[in-house]
Amino acid sequence: MSTILDLFRGSGALYGGNADFIEDIYERYLIDPDSIDIAWRARFDAMRQDAANEPSVSESPHGPVRQNFLRLAQESRLRARSRHIGQLEPVAAEKQAAVLSLINGYRYRGHQIAKIDPIQLREPPKIADIDPAHHNLGPDDMDQIFHTGSLYAPDRMPLREIIATVEQTYCGTVGSEYMHITNTQEKRWIQKRIEGYRARPELEPADRRWLLTLLTAAEGIEKYLHQRYVGQKRFSLEGADALIPLLDELIQRAGRKGQQEVVIGMAHRGRLNVLTNIFGKPPQDIFDEFEGRVKTDWRQQAGDVKYHMGFATDIETAGGIVHLALGFNPSHLEIINPVIEGSVRARQRRRRDFTGDQVLPVLVHGDAAFAGQGVVMETLQLSQTRSYSTGGTVHIVINNQIGFTTSHPLDTRSSPYCTDVAKMVQAPVFHVNGDDPEAVIFVTRLALDFRNQFHQDVIIDLICYRRLGHNEADEPAVTQPMMYKKIRKHPTPRSVYADRLIAEGLISKDDANHMVSEYRDSIEQGVVITRPVLCGLDHGSRVDWSFCHGTTWDQDVDTGVPIEKLRELTEKMLQLPEGFEMHPRVEKIWGERRKMALGDQQINWGYAENMAYASLLDAGVPIRLSGQDAGRGTFFHRHAKIHEQKTGSAYTPLQHLGPHQGPFIAIDSILSEEAVLGYEYGFATAEPHALTLWEAQFGDFANGAQVVIDQFITSAGTKWGLCCGLVMLLPHGLEGQGAEHSSARLERFLQLCAGHNIQVCVPTTPAQMFHLLRRQIVREYRKPLIVMTPKSLLRHRLAVSSLEELAKGQYQTIIPEVDPIEPAEVERVVFCSGKIYYDLIEARRARGQTNLALIRIEQLYPFPKDQFAHIIEQYHNTEEIVWCQEEPQNQGAWDQIKHRFHNLVLSGKRAYYVGRPASAAPAVGHRAAHIEQHERLIDEALSGQYNPSMNKRIPAQ
Fold first, then answer.
1. Domain count, the chain
2. What is each CA distance from 593 to 567, 597, 664, 806, in whole angstroms?
3. Cystine design at 304: which of 308, 310, 808, 840 (Cβ 3.0–4.6 Å)?
4. Is the pTM here over 0.85, yes or no?
5. What gap in Å lies between CA 432 and CA 116, rounded to an integer?
6. Could you give the count of Cα atoms lying within 13 Å of 176 in the half-sphere of its Cβ?
7. Residues 793 and 899 in one domain
């Protein structure tokens, strides 16, 4: 067999110092033979053919080669160390150290002078670390031979060539930031790829022509829309045209690497371009949207602007079919990020893809938004946590260098780059000039391979510009005159690359012009020049919500579970590993739960909730519960996850019910509401048959996620026709602890209710909670469920249920009077929700009143109007109908449900509000004031002694 030495002897290519360099080329050959020079490839092909005919060859295709390389390298380094390093004079040793320091200077700071800005807005800074003089290296040293250290290059080179090598690698059209990474393996992997390829891809002529085809498509659709729909908003991609070849390469390479789904989240800039040229959305559909022709009934589905719409398709790649999904996105910047991550996690779970090798998340950002929106940081912070990781995300920043039109770069952020926030999770950042599509391809390959190798996030900073303003009606030169003088003189990315290929003789000018006319013709004919789009495939990637279409919220379903099954599940839940030492307080709770199952003790909230989960899991339903204290429960009631006191290890009983149970996970999330709730919403949209719950530590913490609530949870069904069964658990109730942590802002959710978009419930018994949670899955109807959960009621002596109540029945939207009150004697009917009920009934019983009925409305939306009317009809002699709430008058439920009283009260009756006066704060800050207010409203509700100064009397209209 020929050895590597024989193959390269006499060529001047191989000597001991070059062994690492050649081995690196050979590694690239093994990964992708087309990525290296043809001459090298021919030599390696011949070498492997010889190896195939050698009987003693190792099973590894490059085993003998590697061994030979290692031997040569070791011998070379030993000789070098003894001959050059060990015997260096002090001055020479100092010079050698200076060279290595200079190389590292380029690695750390070369990106600062890299040619990454296509319009060259700013002068590059002076960087001492990459100035040879700073390292005491001068003209006389340029032709001296120095060791290159860990640089992926020949072992010894003249300083002049070393500088040329690192400048080409680190100061070209790619600026690499990775030296902040503390993981040595990751850092060396990036270093090898960048330095081994000199930050340039090796593309075949056909690949380069395809690049120009994609740039032609990116420019062509924008010009066509601009001419056909003058002045209409489309949020043009022009200036960032390289995004199209970037996404094409990313998807194709992902397919070759075995990934089967790519889920993309992006804002509106460039969205129509991506839909047309990447997803293959028919151009006629986009034209119809511009012209106002809609295919859905806006009375049933409100719809949304065209640059917010999602899309799904399937693309053919060399590795097989890849399913593409583009998430629906509202205008709120970057809020799509956690939603996409949650959707990806659900898709990965469904595929049992626990490492993220099959489903790839891709997020496309804006530069100012990436730096300015806190949800970006929150989403990055989720990326490596155990229950939120998706195996790494490829982030693409469309860096227009302007943010929003009127901004000045010094006002958009405090960091040098818009991407600097990503360094907190030690993600590598690759800045690339958007006018160099070949560099863009190199960075795309590098980023995806890094993500797949290390399952970490990675950032591509596509530095470009915005040829038009924020939208097509904007005039950016008003506030950015200097920038737009440059932009208007600057050729388009397609023109830059076409001229380059023409100059190199790869294509003619006629070829370039033909591409333009061909694309325009295809658009006019309603077809596009993209990768083949496959339709009508059934491969399990699509999320199927068809089972709940056409269903209604008032379906009659039995959510009871037989007592014997409840006892069986309780026993399984209470079984612990041998020797497991519980905390004494938790041990006491375990003992009480055993008594509850036997019927020796009334059921409390924690037991009922856990039994709802256990019974669903037993039926194979997956359950995901998250929140800042979800495992234990903020109020020490749930204990779905318990901790061994000697070792600190966690044990989750609901994961050990049986071999065929559904998966259960209780997640104590990071201290975030917006990103975590967005993530769980995304997860729930992609998991129709799972129970997905998010619990706020206190109900008012949902304020921090209001964007998710407003733009996704309550409106996505109306805007986009999306289904979702997410459950929000919001602890709510005025306990005298001040303005914060009292109210879950019930009024805000009720204000958002319309068209049966969500469910808002206030259960007051453990059995009600049990049936409510089970109803969310047992009933085919799927809408987000907002639950005002209790705090003090978790241990209230009256807020209990029996085992029989769990075994029978269903969720009651209204609970009628429970005491033996004669309807004919009732003069006043008091309706209420939540904790106030127990205060009212205790006071009524203490007073011995029999002329007043207490009715609980347990579902405030959709409002159970038929049951409400039926209850009112029972009380013929009633003179007054009262709504009593503990929240201030302008908060709580009253303002959103009082029309129900006005419409349904019997003729001649009057309806009143009883509660706290209107207030800008949810509750008073002093406990004494809280108690005084509380006693007054209880007395007013029961006695009818209204206080005119508090403006309590509100007549029906």
1. 4
2. 10, 6, 20, 14
3. 308
4. yes
5. 5
6. 31
7. no
The residue from 759, 791, 807 where one domain ends is 807
**Separation between Cα atoms, residue 797 and residue 843, nearest integer Å:** 15
What pLDDT, on the 0 to 100 scale, is given for residue 480? 82
Query: Domain for residue 305, yes or no?
Result: yes
Residue 178 within a domain: no
User: Which of 788, 807, 826 is the last residue in one of the domains?
Assistant: 807
pLDDT of residue 652: 95
DSSP 8-class letter at 690:
S
Task: Give the model's pLDDT for residue 540.
Answer: 65
Separation CA 166–CA 106 (nearest Å): 7
Judge whether 922 and 739 are in contact, CB under 8 Å: yes
Do 235 and 139 share a domain, yes or no? Answer: no
Q: Which residues of the chain have pLDDT under 70?
A: 1-24, 26-40, 46-88, 294-307, 409, 529, 535-540, 903-907, 945-957
The per-residue pLDDT for range 763-783, each reduced to its tens digit, is: 999 999 999 999 999 999 999
Q: How many CA atoms lie within 13 A of 450 on its CB side?
A: 32
Tens digit of pLDDT for each residue in 17-70?
Answer: 455 566 667 666 665 666 666 666 777 776 666 555 544 433 444 555 555 554
Q: What whole-number distance in Å separates Cα of residue 776 and Cα of residue 773?
A: 5
Residue 639 belongs to a domain with what CATH number? 3.40.50.12470
DSSP 392-404: --EEEEEE-S-SS
d(CA 837, CA 318): 65
Measured CA to CA in angstroms, residue 921 lies from 502, 702, 832, 898 at distances of 69, 16, 21, 21
Q: Would 581 be classed as within a structural domain?
A: yes
Beta strands in 209-287 (DSSP E): 261-266
Give the per-residue pLDDT at 10. 40
862 cis-preceded (ω within 30 degrees of 0): yes
CA distance 891 to 265: 36
